[in-house]
Amino acid sequence: MLGQIAYALPFLAQGFAVTLWVSLLVVALSLVAGVMMGVGLVYGPAPLRWVVRIFSDTIRGIPILVLIFFVYYGLPAVGIHLESFWAAVLALTLFKTAQVIEYLRGAVGSIPKGQSEASMAIGLTFRQRLAYVIFPQAFRRFLPPWINGVTDAVKGSALVSLLGITDLMHAINQVIGRTYEAMPLYILGAVIYFAVNYALSLASRRLERRFSFIRE
Amino acid sequence: MGYTLNFNLIWRNFDKLWGGLLLSLELAVISIAIGIVIGLLLAVWYVSAGRVVRTVIAGYVEFIRNVPLILLVYLVFYGLPTVIDVAYSAQTSFVATLSLYSGAYLVEVFRSGLEAVPRGQIDAGKAIGLTPWQRLLHVRLPTMLRITLPALSNTFISLFKDTSVASVISVPELTYGAQWINFNTFRIVEVYLVVTAMYLFTGYALLYALRLVERRFRVAH
Amino acid sequence: MSTHANPALLDVSEVSKSFGSVEVLRSVSLQVTRGEVVTVIGPSGSGKTTLLRCVNFLESYDSGSIRIDGKEVGFRETGTRQRRSERDLAAMRAETGMVFQSFNLFPHLTAAGNIMLGLRKVRGKSSAEARQIAEHWLGRVGLAHKADSLPAELSGGQQQRVGIARAVAMEPKILLLDEITSALDPELVGEVLEVVRSLAEDGMTMVMVTHEMAFARDASSRIVFMADGGVSAAGPPAEILGAEIDNERLRSFLARFRASHF
């Protein structure tokens, strides 16, 4: 039994690499999109705020799995052909972007209005206010939940196995299909996911504690 | 884009979606009910227990929170029966998984809720001569439940969404219904539009209703 | 432009503003010439702070005009009441300094950093030059030794003095002071007012909203009394705070004020 699993380890490692790659792409893309849309939600004109609000509430209101199926099966039907890998990345990015929007809104919203006013009063432009006054302060409120939320991307990435992408989850199922050693492999998989995510949540908690010493 | 929307086939198979939605709700309700029991017991045990018990409970909570739900679903449905002598339907297996899953999240919710009960209330309970059990039952738990109600609502809504994972072991809930129609009629965009609307409407209606309940209880706070 | 025909550095002309159905400013006019120190007093809700916030366009206004050195503050000179671009507004705001009731120091920057930010990003000064200016002004407000302290490490009075230094370091044409001692413990008020007094002696043009009547009497060249969103009385301190003023509202304001503050 152990021999069979050892034999499968390189294959599982490849799957794990895909899991990390998907997670990394999703985290990076959603950070950019989410911060931009979050700024739109907080500072944008009313129509833009509505669009972002509806986007975020819709995405957060449906299961990730539905989002993944919708993107994967729906896009080809309307003539957009994406590889299953990119369809999965797109769907997970949409999901994660909605989260980032809310983290950003929370972080920026926690900064007193006086900070914006004081920076306006010395003549900073909108971009300068964000860059030198708002974001540096919002950063420490944004970072802990965001890092903690990276675990959602890693966990969510396991759903891409359903599109036939050989991530860690899919690799585990394939090895089980050959070896019939279900329980050891699921436990091994759980341990790997746990190790990655637990490390992330520890990092998040540590940051939160470190930042809590900074006074207003 | 030459795609024209045609919902006829969706309406003709709507019973698959409607039945699926009801099953999703049922799965969520049963799971949170069991999850609340697990969460309450473990939270009360945690705050009064020694180091070892605390570590074990924390281990359970952290394990569940850091492993993908889909893996837990596979593990319980395909994995467990290979090592212990149990036989259960996909649905039972999923309810067991989601209960353990929600239980882990709720331990955290209830534990922080118990710790948020003001010291003065416990002292007041002591002052009128309540035993520790009576204090727990009549002072700490009612106050804690009131404090944790919003988090409880949120957990329930996300469990409702999480029931979609049951589709991977062919439990005929809403997402499974959507996939069935998808594969049998190929009205892909339509079925997912309808299902998205169903999840959204149900989720936000639940949220609204639960917020009303919360407001009723908050007055007494 | 016939700026020479109008010597006012700040020219507020018939400015009105409503929040919803509440009219907070009713056709307010006010001229301030270079070097003047104008104090605005009045009961809360009389529009003092709103007026001040309109001068650097932290608030927009519905009608009328506000000019600094002949230039319309918030709107383009086309007469269409089109807001200035973000860049123009920022440039206009850099010409006015503002000190806030709640200090509003940037908590992530040191005292010197607070002062240097505008100098570097708005005035385009080098880091070294900005640092020099910051140190000069910190010295002026008696905080040379606190240049590298974070706001959280300073007392309220010290924070507000940094707030003043941050505003004046930009060399504004006019300084707006919005109840700058209201959030301070009584024993810290003096040190802040002392700084304001020394700026006044230097000839800094100032408009301040304050409840410090004694200070208003000593330091202002003119006092404006606002009530119900309009200017109810204006004149030299001796006249406005004097006993024989013929303005019922002002008299009852001052009577109530003295009753509650002395």
From TrEMBL, chain A:
Q: Which Gene3D superfamilies match?
A: MetI-like
Key words of the record: Cell membrane, Membrane, Transmembrane, Transmembrane helix, Transport
User: What Gene Ontology terms describe what this protein does at the molecular function level?
Assistant: transmembrane transporter activity
Q: Which Pfam families match?
A: BPD_transp_1
Which SUPFAM superfamilies does the entry mention?
MetI-like
Taxonomically, the superkingdom here is Bacteria
Gene Ontology BP, a term: amino acid transport
How is this protein positioned relative to the membrane? Multi-pass membrane protein
Identify the residues that the record assigns to the ABC transmembrane type-1 domain, covering every copy.
16-204
| Cellular component aspect of the GO annotation | ATP-binding cassette (ABC) transporter complex
Q: Where are the transmembrane segments?
A: 20-43, 64-82, 183-203
Cellular localisation: Cell inner membrane; Cell membrane
Family, according to the entry, reads as follows: Belongs to the binding-protein-dependent transport system permease family. HisMQ subfamily.
* Protein name in UniProt: Amino acid ABC transporter membrane protein 2 (PAAT family)
Q: In the record, what lineage is assigned to the organism producing the protein? A: Bacteria, Pseudomonadati, Pseudomonadota, Alphaproteobacteria, Hyphomicrobiales
UniProtKB/TrEMBL annotation, chain B:
Primary localization class, coarse: membrane
- Extract one GO molecular function annotation from the record: transmembrane transporter activity
Q: Which Gene3D superfamilies match?
A: MetI-like
Say which domain of life the source belongs to: Bacteria
Q: Which GO terms describe its cellular component?
A: ATP-binding cassette (ABC) transporter complex
Keywords linked to the UniProt accession: Amino-acid transport, Cell membrane, Membrane, Transmembrane, Transmembrane helix, Transport
The transmembrane residues are 20-48, 69-90, 191-210
One GO term under biological process is: amino acid transport
In the record, the note on similarity to other proteins reads: Belongs to the binding-protein-dependent transport system permease family. HisMQ subfamily.
> What does the UniProt entry say about where the protein is found?
Cell inner membrane; Cell membrane
> What name does this protein carry?
Polar amino acid transport system permease protein
Q: Does the keyword Aminoacyl-tRNA synthetase apply?
A: no
Q: Which residues form the ABC transmembrane type-1 domain?
A: 21-207
Report the InterPro entries cross-referenced here: AA_ABC_transptr_permease_3TM, ArtM/GltK/GlnP/TcyL/YhdX-like, MetI-like, MetI-like_sf
Give the way it sits in the membrane: Multi-pass membrane protein
Automatic annotation (TrEMBL), chain C:
Pfam short name (any one): ABC_tran
- Indicate where this protein resides in the cell: Cell membrane
Show the InterPro entries listed in the entry.
Answer: AAA+_ATPase, ABC_ATPase_HisP-typ, ABC_transporter-like_ATP-bd, ABC_transporter-like_CS, MetN_ABC_transporter-like, P-loop_NTPase
Recorded GO CC terms: plasma membrane
Q: Name one GO molecular function term.
A: ATP hydrolysis activity
User: Where does the ABC transporter domain lie?
Assistant: 10-253
Keywords on this record? Amino-acid transport, ATP-binding, Cell membrane, Membrane, Nucleotide-binding, Transport
Q: What PROSITE patterns is this protein classified in? A: ABC_TRANSPORTER_1, ABC_TRANSPORTER_2
Q: How does it sit in the membrane?
A: Peripheral membrane protein
Q: Which family does it belong to?
A: Belongs to the ABC transporter superfamily.
Name assigned to this protein: Amino acid ABC transporter ATP-binding protein (PAAT family)
Q: What is the lineage of its organism?
A: Bacteria, Pseudomonadati, Pseudomonadota, Alphaproteobacteria, Hyphomicrobiales
